[in-house]
Fold these 3 entries.
Entry 1:
Amino acid sequence: MFRFILQKLLNKKWLILSILIGNVLLVGIACCNPMYSRAALQKMLTKRMSGYLEETNQYPGLLTLDSRLSKTRLTSHSSRYFNDYLTVADDAEKMFEQKATQKVTLFEHTFQQDAKFAVSRSGLSSIKMKLASLSNLDEHIEIIYGDMYKNEIGADGFIDCIINEKVYLTSNIVIGDELEMYGVVTLAGEPVKIRVSGVFRAKDTQDLYWVNDPLSYQDEFFIPQSIFVNKFLEGGEVSGNIHAKYFLLYDYSDIEIPQVQRMLDTFEKLETDYKTTDCLYSVYCNYQEIFTQFLKDSSKVEATMWILQVPILVLLAVFIFMVSNQVIDIEQGEIAMLKSRGVSRLQLILTYLLQSAILGGIALIIGIPFGYILCHVFGSTNAFLEFVGRKSLNVRITGESLLYALVSCASGILIMTLPVLKFARFSIVEQKAHKRKKNKPLWQRMFLDFALLALALYGFYDFNNQKDELMKAIANGEAVNPMLFFSASLFILSCAIVFLRVIPLLSSLIFRIGRKSWKPAEYASFLQITRDIHKQSFITVFLVLTIALGIFNANIARTVNQNEEERISYTDGADLVVKENWANNVSSIRQGYATKLRYNEGDYTRFERMAEENADRVVSMTRVIHDTDAQVIFGGNGISNVEMFAINTYEFGNTAQMPDGVTEHHWYENLNKLAQNPEGVIISKNLADACGYAVGDSLTLERFDETRQSMGRKSFTVVDIVEYWPGYENSREMKTETGELEMKPVYLTVCNYDNVLLDYPVVPYEVWLKIEGSTDFFYKWAEENKITFKEFSDLSNDMIGLKNDPYFQITNGMLTITFIVVLVLCAIGFLIFWITSIRSRELIFGIYRAMGMSMGELIRMLVNEHVFGSILPILFGAGIGLLASKMFLPLIQIAYSPKVETLPAKIVMSGSDLVKIAVVVTLMLTGCIAVISALLSKIKINQALKLGED
Amino acid sequence: MKEILRTEAVTRSFPVAGGDFLALKGISVVVPEDTLTILKGRSGSGKTTLLNIIGALDAPTSGTVIFDGKDISKASDKEREVLRRHEIGYIFQSVALIPVMNAYENVEYALRLANYKGDYRERVMECLKLVGLSKRATHMPQELSGGEQQRVAIARAIAHKPKIIFADEPTGELDSATSLQVIAIFKELIEKEGITFVMTTHDTKLMGYGDVVYEIQDGEIINTEYHGKGEQLR
């Protein structure tokens, strides 16, 4: 049996190879989903946590249990709190199912009025300090003066303690000082007496152990934890007011995605436990916000990946089915013969199942490594059909991906076996009878194609009507509704099958028009197309589908990418926007020496020199005063959320970026109006609408400095009203009084730089630069000149950020892969169809030749068939792809739009993609015709005709 | 009696493993006009090879084939095509109709290929009537029985008024009653249309209908019989 199957497989090696390719792609693409999303999301998670660390200087993997223990509380409740607390802390670690990298307990007596220390040494008044203990402190410090504390109380009743170097330097305490705590006694009722034995310094300030900066312990005398517990906390009793903190630290770079949910759950459980039991602790963690946002984003990424993957998986399934069907079509006679010789249907199906399983097994073995490679390809997609050599993702073959591979492999096996079910029913007699029936397929008789098209159009109509809700859902962080993609795919599919009705109509129309004048070759090919369409229907649908999907996907990718790139370049405003740190007198104001904020203006000539030295890179540069919190005085009230730009119109026009096609007129016209009126102001449309301003009106602006002190008002004349401005977003998410996030409008005013400086002191301005090429030189210059920036935005960096965003990476990667796969399948499917179609018609060609048809005519006949059987579907597919893009892209674009709709979304249809498709298709067609001609010339008429003999 | 086709010492060899296989070993036959000539022999005897050569589907390795006074043994592909298009018709053993064309169109197609100058419809119907199938003109091949299909093939072969028709085992897949019908049609066409028929067969029951019967064995003519009209050639 095995040998029989092998022989069968080898006989049709090309078809089998195609099926194998289909299966490998199926397995590879299916199993790369979990592999890739895991790797990309892991990268995103780690990156976000390290970003959090950089921004806040707090450790993201930290969970803190915080409890305030006091005598009064203990007496009014039961006495189990401290033990409970320790148990909860212990449990917490267990609940994470993961060992904390670092566990730190900190106990300290909190400040109380009477918690003072009397100092034995004369010349020192009493000092306010806390008694504290940190677990395992000895392992993380070095003693720089004196000695480490001893873990037992001295014979004279003194407890050793140590202080950090800062305390040592700023207080008058010296080693050997003896102190007694006021008002607090130990559990045994003894007075608390300590002796300073040494001064410590953290061994390594980067040590995770130092949840709080070691130098921040400015009021603490540290004593051994065992003594602290023994003297103040033992047995559920508490002496004094004790602040207990239990830090659990998890190395964030080790935190993996499956732990995210568990860590969040644990945190929430600890939180609710705290509320439901009367255990007095509170719990907080640094990671909650990161993780919650991460889970939201990761589900969005995963959903997106699925949505983008389903069409290609379906296409592959269809492809495998089509080729398997072709194989079984060829083996039809064989099957029927086996049937009539008494082979049962079950046996037949089992044989084919085994055959499919062999192929599936091979596909599995190749598919998994292939999926692995695909993940790396995704990781290096930069844009649609663009790859870069970027640091690859840490992709691993996980259990989940193996499961996906197995499931896809199993479905592949089923799909391969499916066509045999149809034929296994017939014996040789029935098969011949069956062959004769040539009714329209069921779906055509039932008008299912039109029903599907109607459904898809309804979906489109429905989504179009719900556009606003769609936007809201996306703004709330939801993934795009899969039904939207489904409707688009359905639209393409239903158009493709409706097209099946069109081809014969069209060709028979052309046929009828020239019935009398058609040459024999064309005559025969028209009849072939109109009468034998059903044999071709599958390849026709397949061609339409692949081309349409290819174009549609390419357009999605282009649109999504370009809109996002333009948005980033628009909100950044220019290639580089920097705001230097200027020295100011804030500290003097705080100490009450000054009232007005003053700056030492940074020397702009340094910038000018830099620009001169790098004239080849700095195309243009300008200063921009950019307030984000100005007010417009309207009807006696201040309207806040006003951004004010003060610009040098000419320089600004040369430096700033404004995407094409956003405004009706070129934005230089706006700049010109401002330039013509020194006291003019350009305002945003939403401001004009809110206050009813029109061009020519007067407008009063109030500016504030960084300390929120008014810098005074000034009047301007409205010279123009705009909707878009480089660097300006018309709304922003802001916290309301209740703490919820809400979108609020942001207003824009643009004035002349010199005019603003007439009435206001200089405040730190932004420097906008237009850069040619890399921005590296700027970083080097800033470093060499020790220039630090308060604000810094580098467009090229932001673009890299975009390319690294898993959401965009997946979209680009998936669409690119789909596109390539589509082309591969298209070429293979096309060749298979034509080769088998020619093989099966060898006898007919022999007849044509015997009747005196020349080789040239035969090829002309086939080319004509090509035109209707392939070129028409390809053209139609291209049309459908473009139409689907026109219809669905504005909706799909919403899924990728930012929360704030800064720019109107554009639909991008790249001509170069069409050209790429056209080139590949042309290559495919010429290749096919070459192969076909070679095949044809090999056919010997007499041999073809001799089929009948013997 | 006028002869339409003659071969002189025709040989045909095919390359096989270990040398050439000589399928025809110097065959000389004469086909008289307006007769039914039968090439008789078992399978592998070389009768189909001979038919292909005299039917301008294949060229001999050596020897000459004179068709209608012209030597066609050295003709180019192009010349053969023209010959096949206008002067020659074929009938094959197995289903030889173009499956996407109905009976009428199959016959008409021969006219198209031959660029027939007269009225297509009239000629097609005339031919179909000759084979007794004028009522089934619009049927597709798969809707016809084996005998009916073969009759359509005959109608198609004669449609463009060829001088000669070659038939390779035309009755090979037919029962004896239908076979006789086909032969009867051949005879009728010889009379009515003035067409010469050359057919191969191994069916001994049909030999008596052939005006000339050449028996071929291992690439050689081993026996020649004459019946009816052929008697004159004896």
Entry 2:
Amino acid sequence: MRHGKYPFVIGFLFAPVTLYVVFVIAPYAQAFQISMTNWRGLSAPQWVGFDNYRRLLDDGSFWKAVQHHGVLLLALPLITIAIALFFSFLLNVGGKSSGGQRQGVWGAKFYRVVFFFPQVLAVAIIAVLFQMVYRPNESGLINGVLMKLGFDPVLFLIRPNLALWSIIAVLVWQAVGFYVVLFSAGMASIPGEIYEAAEMDGATKVTLFFRVTLPLLWDTLQVAWVYLGIAAFDAFAIVAVLSVDGGGPDGATTVLAMEIYRNAFVYSKYGYASAMGVALFFLTLTFAALTLRLTKRESVEY
Amino acid sequence: MSITPEHPVELDRRTVLRRAAAVGMLATPAIGLLSACATSGDDKDNEQVAGGTKSATNPLGVKEDAPIEVIIFNGGYGEKYATDVHEPLYKKAFPKSEVKHQATQAVSTVLQPRFAGGNPPEFVNNSGEKFLDFGALVNDGQLQDLTELWDAPSVDDASKKVRDTVIPGVVEQGMFNTADGGRKPFVLYYVSTVYGIWYSGKLFKDNGWTAPTNWEQFKALCEQIKAKGITPYGYAGANAAYYQWNVILTQAAKIGGTDVLKNIDNLEDGAWKQDAVKQAAEAWAEIGAKYSDKSFEGLKHTDVQLRQNQGKVAFYPSGDWLENEQKKDTPAGFTYQLMPVPSLTASDKLPATAIRAAGGEGYFVSSKSKNPRGGMEYMRQMLSKAGARGFTETVGAATVVPAGSEGFQFPPGVASAQAALKAAGQDVFNMLFDNWYKELDTEARTATNELMFGRIKADAFVERIQKRADAIKKDSSVTKFKR
């Protein structure tokens, strides 16, 4: 059978690899090519070398966007993972133990479904929903209540130092459900005896969480961090639909994808937009490689 | 033209998918042949049809059975005027031809891949938030030179050229510089658009208020309106900040004369720092601070317009498409009325009646489409008396063909706009920089929000826009225009 192995493997790989090359590799490669031109989207482009990249260096909105990715990169994974861990701990091992089995808090099954709801909605729909939630006048969900109670409305998406955090809140809200499920699956595979043994030794719930759950969940956490980091490099749909004046006010919520979109589809500067795309590509790649390298550590076998 | 009626174009999942597909399509040809890259605009498959025989009824020599494709921006004017009026007119003239119709709210999303692929549609209504950059189109030779159309005999009177049936200045407005240094008409601006500040005739009558003509009256009235618990003035910062820079620049033109705007359009050094612009910005920043509402920055144009219909906002700046756009939400008896932007000082160069008016809604014919002559003929039909009349009857707005609106009973808002236009006489002006340089438009919008919602002062406002204008002037990849 050995001599037939390669044709067999190649036969299987042919279709997916072709598709991948056509729809993923080729556009990437072409983005590199276009980024070296001053293509305006219609007729043949002219080669301009690294001009576009040089221009990136003193483009204020580009650096603003990069800075926002920095904030997102810290805040989004940290907040999301913290909340998701807390919830999944409560849902899986936070309750009483019955017959030697750890249980979640009362109603855990119901909560699990509810937490997952945002994940089912399309991103654009979430953004539209939050337009209603954040609306700055009496017809907004939050401000309507506040104004009834006699408070001034909170200008969520308008105050420059609040706008980005309002966007982050939506991203977190949307992501938490998925990670609750991911972490729940991870926790389910931790043997109950370990908890039992730890409890017998007098461990509190807090100790249980930090000394048992967290170390045994490390691999899953690492995956979550990379996923969320990559999500932090996107955020386009939410920003495009939700923010004021397309990444505003005055660029306070802009992200790279928003700037790429604006340069390509509003200014018709496809060459320049591609240069931004290439920059984003390398940023994402660097992040993924760094995270995997830094979080590498012996996983605990059980 | 970016100053056009528009529905809020939300970015929905489908658009995202379509866009993703478009990107895929751009990339696909690249792997077919390494030499044939996606960015090559010419496509040899797209052979143009031969011309037909010229005759009195067919002066442009259209091939009678060649199909044409019509793309309409489905915004404030909808698409009915095309499907019910203009397309039937074309079909009547050329029964053997097939007219393909498509309406969209995102013109560039639909057409960008078509131009890149070399098979653009014949006739395009390039308008709305996502319109294609006219400058880029001209630069790439994608637009049909309309000289022949303007010189052709008109449908109704063979002794009159088409160019003589439209309002003066309309042909000029659609002219662009070409790469070889010439200047040719490429775009037809079809709708007569008058800009100003709108209020409810009923609200004002009930309260005994009259439209102010100078700044003292304007501010005094704003005080009274505020005392009534109504927000005196507002525009939507979330997506329609350009309605407000339009007001500021209109004010500047009144203070310093129309050359102020010409300098801005021509990217003259220090154009934005002219005194008139700064004065106008200062005056309006005060209105923003005292007589508007901070929350409007987070609202879309439809939200603020609705609030005006509900009697919560008194003055709202817009063009005369507003009445048609709000038709569904306007309570009976609301009576839209337009007032020109009030004079700021007694020494203003232009009188209080001066007004910004222009052809709105840009239409073009693709020179690289299969049947460009058909596209021009479609325009000729649009510009006929029947075509203009039908448009006016369908959407309630005047066209650039005066014969089409003769004796037509306009709704009160458009009627007041037409009256204001008449009162303005020769003091009618326009600005074009937003069409020519979209980056400058974006910067002006952002700066306007910063100014009107109190984060920067007039000095910083003119400073930052001037900086962007200078950068555009230096950018060799951007085609420059002059008027």
Entry 3:
Amino acid sequence: MVSLTPMELEALQLSLRVAFFAVTISLPLGIAAAWILARYSFPGKPILDGIIHLPLVLPPVVVGYLLLVLLGREGVLGQWLYRLFDITLAFTWQGAAVAAAVMAFPLMVRSIRLALELVDRNLEAAAFTLGAGHWNVFFTVTLPLIAPGILAGSLLAFARSLGEFGATITFAANIPGITQTIPLALYSVIQTPEGEFAAFRLAILSVVLSFTALAISEILARRLRTRMVG
Amino acid sequence: MLKIDVEKSLKAFHLNTRFECESSGVIALFGRSGSGKTSIVNMLAGLLTPERGEVVVKDRVLFDSSQGINVPPQERRLGYVFQEDRLFPHLTVRKNLLYGWKRAPKSERRIQLEQVVEMLGIEALLERHPGKLSGGEKQRVALGRALLANPSLLLMDEPLAALDQARKEDVLPFIERLRDEFDVPIVYVSHSMEEIVRLADTMVLISDGRVEAVGAVDDVMGRLDLRPLTGRYEAGAVLSARVSSHDSEFALTELEFGGGTLRIPLLDVPTGTLLRLRIRARDVSLALTPPTDISIQNVFKATIVAIGGETGPQIDLRLEAGGAAVWARITKRALMSLNLEPGREIYAMVKAIAVDRHSLGRVTGPDRFLSGE
């Protein structure tokens, strides 16, 4: 059995924690954004759509920089967060999670929006006639029907968060034990002389992690599918 | 009472529908495809909002533009059976059936799961998902789901239209049983005369979003001026008749109606049952004197009431036999040679096997449709 070095273990735990929180933050917001984009049309819709998709096309470093400007301790919103709630995001693992969430957000929204657009609205109408109110219809009909899309979106976001580098290093920096996720650790060991073997081990760890996530989502998706058709 | 008075501009025409009738038995909305029937039902259900008007079901105002009342669909308590089954694919049949039941107020849950499951014969399907059911089974579950919501009125929008002929024959008897065994009035949308004659008591004739006629099925079908809408090919009279006896030797059933006796192929119904049947105009022939030595089993005396003004080789005559309206379609040549005119007494003949068996329906409402009584 191969055992992990303390540095590797720390990076693994941090990566999982950052990715998990990134998905948790972006899931409800992602569903809300997908709902608005799929169900409503309003004048500023293309702009909202563009803003949501921005992290997909911008260089990650730019996103990290913008986050610093916005949410840094001296930032536009960051100073209020610090003063009112004593919350600091820059250079913390929470900041890394926010950076990962922002980067993963468009993938999440695209996946859920597609699922929402495929929902047969007639089923929702049928649920109304059976006495279910709006939230009730959402939780008992719409949400179960888009569950596969939510699962796929969450997996994409999780994988994207595990691999996040540019925005994280800019906004949260590369601090061992605090913000050093697997990709950042890999970057650090490559910089040190004779770090090839350590880099190789981290790369393997990364592959194993991604495969596991993929396998788990495949099992869940299959379970969902059999539930649908009995 | 059911009262609809609604207006809305649709793509093809301006819908302006107004009618009132008793909310009991089966009320059929009949009209061609695209005449606005589904829009009317959606306005009843609250899925479509009229621009102006009023919707009242059993003394409850569901919509009134002048008072700003618009009860949302989830609070209207109307069951809706759609053309497609619209079952929830992620729920089992049991959970689909109970979806509306659970959301009905406890005090109004008169109809229970066991009753409905037994009536529809779907015990074996309860734990399955809709994806694994046949079209006919799905539509039966959809009927059960709407009924179990314990609605004050059931809406059915062409519930058989998506099924093939064999499946239709499977599902129709269940709609009949639902009508007979549960005290829930039904608004039934269809463009199939057969279904309407078989199921409905009251008929609302719709054309381009307007009501052309409201009344008992027999009466509306008997009106000459409505013929362009009720359909020329399907033209025929709708009669109410009572089963008087069965003749097992010749496998015939005798029916009594206002104009006399009708013999038709043996039916499996008890004597005394009130039936509604359709006799197509093209199956009725006429004679001036009582015919003898012929194979036709049904001959009854009738009076010519009106002669249609059709162009072409054939013409439709409206007859009255003991208060019941009957149609006859003959050639213009026959009309001329027999010198037929309104007021003339003649003998109408119908072949026993010509009676449209698909349209035989039990009469559930009061006897008001039984002509001659």
